[in-house]
Amino acid sequence: ITKDPLYKEIVEDILLYMTRDLGDQDGGFYSGEDADSLPKVGDKQKREGAFCVWSAKEVQELLKDPLPGGASQTQGDFIVSHFGIKEDGNVMPQQVLQHGVRMHL
Known about the structure:
Blueprint: H1 5-22, E1 36-37, E2 47-48, H2 56-62, H3 75-83
Antiparallel strand pairs: 1-2
């Protein structure tokens, strides 16, 4: 409809993810995937929820743009401060979060 190549790329990425990670060998799709993942590139042992753990450094490296309005803080600085992200992350990958835990945004 829009002919914007960005939207085409987004749809292709979603379809790739669905077929690669959620596709069943019999042609169906799973509604979710296991949270076991590798904590760091090169690790050989997966841990529960490792892909959900972000260090302050990782957030700041990804969100380098300054906040709007001429602030001296980057988006990463703001997110780290607002959510209280610790240098090594806030959750150890081997911990399993219990039901009832709320995240406040």
